[in-house]
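Researcher: Re-running this chain for the archive, since the previous output was lost when a drive failed. Same request as before.
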Amino acid sequence: MPISVFDLFKIGVGPSSSHTVGPMMAAFKFTAALRDKQVLGQASRLEVHLYGSLSATGIGHGTDHAIIMGLLGERPDAIDPSIITPEIATLKETRRLALDRQVDIEFVWERDMIFHEESLPHHPNAMKLCAFDQDGRALLENTYYSVGGGFVVDQSQVDAKLEDMDTAKIPFDFNSAEELLAICKRENMSISQLMLENEKTWRGEQEVRNELWRIWQVMCECIDNGLTHEGVLPGGLNVKRRARQLHQRLIAAEQNTCLIATTFSAMEWVNIFALAVNEENAAGGRMVTAPTNGAAGIIPAVLHYYMKFQDGACERNVVDFLLAAGAIGILCKKNASISGAEVGCQGEVGSACAMAAAGLAEVMGATPEQVENAAEIGLEHNLGLTCDPVGGLVQVPCIERNAIATIKAINAAQMALRGDGTHFISLDKVIRTMRDTGRDMLDKYKETSKGGLAVNAIEC
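Model: Regenerated structure tokens:
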């Protein structure tokens, strides 16, 4: 099934695309299904069942809260993040839930929010929603899987072996980097040009450009918010925000020393941009999945770096960057995974690093072969990266990990631009290696907080 760049870049809220954005969207879809079946008004009670990684780290990721907001009729791309905490507090106190903001039902948190240790077969991020009438009869039951990056599939799609009901025919379909490069060569197109033609399947060209520019504006707002807010991040680890203070120090240093944009100062700016985004994500702020929330700082930081330090950078560059990055994200999702619960953090930060490297190479004038090389370098050197968040929170090591991967992405693009696009290991082979490595990786290193830093950080 075709994947759009807008499937990878979704506006939502923190701290996790798979554990927050996806579950909220699943609950929203469940509520819509109750409406469509004309049984919404008959609902008297709900049960929420969480499985696998959603159960193991769901509280730290706000999965339970996100589902409630979806049941209230809120969408992740439209919700005001500031309403979540007071809404949850009211529900717990009153034990009443306004389903779709229309039907008042009982919801007892300790009874109706159920965490299961086992995983369901299709994917570790699983949730089941059940609605009952006043006599206890089931009105609707469905199982949803949050498969990474905010993508959600339900049981019917799984049974039909579909992850997307979209049957649109795109002009330049590709399932591998080899196919992508062959099409670019045959059509004499850049990767961003090819992606734009595919996106025109769903939207007019100007709408594609406008929507990508809007995505970029939300990314910029997220950076600005991260550079403005300070204090301690929620969740109990007492992790302090650093981006604002580091930003102020860097500005002061540049003013005091008349520092011109050097490689070293540029690196500091990039680090700060990435930290700002991921601190805002950890605080539950408005985000753009890129391709996930856990890795959301890398692409905005690299693109912001380009827009800040490249003379003549303009809106067209933003569009081309995101389109080229999207092509790599599509390959990672199709042939491996962008879900930390499925393949570890290599699927999130690794994919984002590859996407950012490709986007930067594209706007720096790279050939399609050089873009593919940049992506390969970015992903190859994140292979095996585990997902072991301390306390189940998207804070340690996630925030700093985004900053480190941002520098890797810029370096990967620079190395690729110095070559002619030929290299020993292809992107396709690296993506397959990520898939195989993820399959072999122990579950305790795949967003369960049962291994690695998550347990070694605990003081006994």
